[in-house]
Amino acid sequence: MKHDFKNIEPKWQQRWEAAEAFRAGEDRSKKKFYALVEFPYPSGAGMHIGHVKAYAGLEVVSRKRRMEGYNVLFPLGFDAFGLPTENYAIKTHVHPRVATDRNIEKFTMQMKKLGFSFDWSKTIDTTDENYYKWTQWIFLKMFENGLVFRDKTLVNYCPSCKVVLSNEDSQGGKCDICKSDVIQKSKDVWYLRITEYADKLLEGLDSVDYPQNIKTQQINWIGKSQGAFVDFSVAGGKEKLTIYTTRPDTLFGVTFMVMAPEHPMLDKYKDIITNFDRVEEYRAICAKKTEFERTQVNKDKTGVKLEGFTAKNPVNGKEIPVFISDYVMMGYGTGAIMAVPAHDERDYEFARKFGVDVIEVVKGGDVSEAAYTGDGEMVNSGFLDGLTNKKDSIAKMVEYLEEKGIGKAGVQYKMKDWAFNRQRYWGEPIPIIHCPNCGMVPVPYDELPLKLPNIDKFEPGEGGESPLAKIDSFVNCTCPKCGGAAKRETDTMPQWAGSSWYFLRYVDPNNNERFADPERLRYWMPVDWYNGGMEHVTRHLIYSRFWYRFLYDIGEVPFPEPYLKRTAQGLILGPDGEKMSKSRGNVIDPLDIVDAYGADVLRTYILFLGDYTASAPWAENGVKGCRRFLERVAALTDIAKGKGSTPALEKQFHKTVKKVTSDIEEMKFNTALAALMTLINDISDAGTLTVDELKTFIALLCPFAPHLCEEIWESLGEKGFLSLSPWPVYDESKVVDAEVEIAVQINGKLRATVTVSADADKASVLETVRSCDKIAPLIEGKQIVKEIYIPGKIVNIVVR
RNA sequence: GCGGAUAUGGCGGAAUUGGCAGACGCGCUAGAUUCAGGUUCUAGUCGGGGCAACUCGGUGAAGGUUCAAGUCCUUUUAUCCGCACCA
């Protein structure tokens, strides 16, 4: 047979679709497998080669699971709210609804051309009213449970475009659109109180199967730190300035304090601070920097010393100066710090620049040279002197602070509450009404979905508010509580909202009564295996775990964690080894490859390319290798006979079934395919194989190259789909070798190999080795110091 | 800066997790098939030395642990990813 992909691929795609071959079954007595891949943003550019890799992994696992008899749910939907579609609408006046529908249609068609076994009957679209109704519903549940609040924050704002910018769009402090200076502006923002779930999100990690690096990234992102809040009296003892520190034990080494430039206490003491003009000057400079820059560029510390405003060290009563500096962030801790220059690098650098004293309180370094951040004996620290264990000295200091009422133990998280709104059109409207009498009032549940009004001008409003603010018919409404005139919130939710619970909707996508039927949730959840990009490991993964955990806490879902197992694929880089991007011109269009080589070749190549979890550059020549491989597979039909295989080949088949079976589970697709290539080389050497062996071969290859394998299956006279036929099994007794080859080393250098029976004992193996004619002369007359034998692997003789 | 990762032939990558480095594929060389290009087949392909058997060296760099290190430890360099309004 020839590999006629142009005809066989559409043929099998149509047959699968007509038979709904990959539709998840309703039989809940069967073992289930829920495979989830991150749903795409349906951009106008269509499918990217990265999507193919992201989906091909669990595509193979899902296909294997079906053959193993599982009831498999492998869905795909669309995360369609977002800026690119909105910007496209601003530019072209094509409504986002129209553009989104068009893009989804294109994307779906492209996916089908790859032969992915998605259950298209379960597809969803986050911008569908029947979907975002439930996104709004969950938001209101959070509102009801005190997890939604409003507060001020600083945002990047371009005064010329009058628009709020992301950090990315304001890099270098310049507006990406008009290049004018970006300023920091205070703005009312919606927040979700995710910090309340910080501990639950940390604890939940113990019960799930994520790779350690993903867990570590989440732990660091949450950034829990144990420390203490300490009150310093300022301005002559009238008021307290509270700081947060993880090292209260170094309190005796505090020689100054630093406040964030935006710290509200500064304004209260305007009249006392004699150089307040300098403070305002400095604030203006800082307002031009994004927080990102402030934390990033800390090479050169800047700041202003406050005149007429000092603090008192609460443990030794010493008067210390207070500075403002932008290396202290208002958003972390209390917005003020105690500085211990001897033992903190940033404080040290600042102290050197501003000529403040450095007092050593932990022995071990030379504080005249650099800050010492290690452990050591406490000195110059009153009642802590002589303690050598950090834990003990922290505990003792916290005890002292609590006793004296000047501080208390506390916990801080790096993770902040989640800023949950955008001033954009193309997002879920936040279902809240502002009533002059009743305050913030939720839209009643029976009025959901709160639909986006149909508009044709998508430019953001003056001052950066959402385009919705201009639509009077949307904004003006009556308060559901008092019936008086009220105004709707015009911000929309961030694009993270829809993706925070989408995996629940796949289970029951058309339910109008609930976000999903509880019985279906109990059967399908949790997701058994979730694969996606490393870049989503912190945000999306944490956000969706938060939402799910909340739903669990209010009794809406059956388990506390949504994903049992998480993996992440690596990027496909351009042929030049750089990240693919339009501007570099190194983008590979997957459909070009499908046209030239077929979907089976593309799928096979992408998985053969290298370690699935690592990044690898695209190489067109590698594609040809996979084409050659599939052509050789097709040609196997010409030599398969009823009988005539060899015992050696039979053994090779058992080994390959074992290897492919386990490699797929470990996502080692490249070595699984290498094993199949090795096997086809063995078949070529043998020159023959049986029809049953060919069936085994195509069953193993079917998850990778399903169209060709189905075609061969049919040509062998089989009815039904190979894709739904049983997965091959192997016989463990046929896999073990009776004889093994053992490497023989003298003093760690390879000198020979010997073949011994697999169950030989150490004495007989060593006897064989010593008498071997390559080894005997080398140990002749030498003193044998040691003989090491690792069964089945190696013998090492140490001689002198 | 902080956090996460990576580094192995000409190239993509393997290495049973501390046990024969370079599986498999690409590319390349030689030969065969073909009118020719492509395809297909056979042999070879980490580097140095040797006709060969063989031998010496070799996993970004420098140290260390071990009978044994690509794998573990310390230091270091380079590259990639994330850092909160990009999706």
Label this structure with key terms.
800 residues, alpha/beta, 7-stranded mixed sheet, RNA-binding
Termini separation: 63 Å
How many strand units? 27
Shape: globular
The fraction of residues in strands falls at 15-25%
The main pleated sheet reads as: 7 strands, mixed
Which class best fits the helix and strand makeup?
Answer: alpha/beta
Instruction: Name the poorly predicted regions.
Output: 295-299
**What value does the Rg take, in angstroms?**
33 Å
Helical proportion, percent range? 25-40%
Number of helical regions = 26
Mean pLDDT: 87
Describe the fold and architecture.
With 800 residues, the chain is of the alpha/beta class. The chain is 35% helix and 18% strand. It contains 26 helices and 27 strands. Strands 6, 7, 8, 9, 10, 11 and 12 form a seven-stranded mixed beta sheet that branches. Helix 1 crosses helix 23, helix 20 packs antiparallel against helix 21 and helix 22 packs antiparallel against helix 23. The chain is globular, with a radius of gyration of 33 Å. About 1% of the residues have low confidence. The structure holds one RNA strand of 87 nucleotides.
